[in-house]
Amino acid sequence: MFKKFTKEDVHTRTNLKSSACKTLKAKLVTQYPLLEEHIDELIPKKTPVILLKCEDKIQLYVVDNQVLFYQQFDDLIPELRIVHKYPEAFPRVQVDRGAIKFVLSGANIMCPGLTSKGAKLPDEDWPVDKIVVVYAEGKENAMAVGKLSMSINDIKTINKDTGIELYEYLGDGLWHFKD
């Protein structure tokens, strides 16, 4: 989604009203319940939240010149720096070492990279379209954020095709974006 993202992709810039900020906070806490204890630190009351509308109906939410979340259609998706700051607040999966170079070049994650020896999937079944954070075997920090293309049970049983559609990854256009 952000492979070649630049400032030229931003069309409009708007300050959110305080009521819209409250709605944004509520939606974030609903979608990521573990973020609730950090929400006022993430989006302080007197700090303006800026909405950047971009190509392909993407909206970026910016606080203090840092993109916190972005949205395309419904889901609010965390930017990787926020994931690094609050790693426990987001659902996570792990890929094996062989998938690292492909993920860091922007490729979607295939099921075998999620089910092999070095990979880890949660025990419970997550539905299709759930936003997940991708970690790599042997690495401490997240390297990507994406959306499940199959449920966790389907990834484990079918074990072929795309398991996660990648949205952003370390070193992409959003990672280098400065407002």
UniProtKB/TrEMBL annotation:
One of its GO terms (cellular component) is cytoplasm. InterPro entries: MCT-1/Tma20, Pre-PUA, PUA, PUA-like_sf, Uncharacterised_CHP00451. Residues 91-171 form the PUA domain. The keyword Cytoplasm applies. This is Translation machinery-associated protein 20. It is found in: Cytoplasm. CDD domains: MCT1_N (cd11609), PUA_MCTS-1-like (cd21155). SMART domains: PUA.
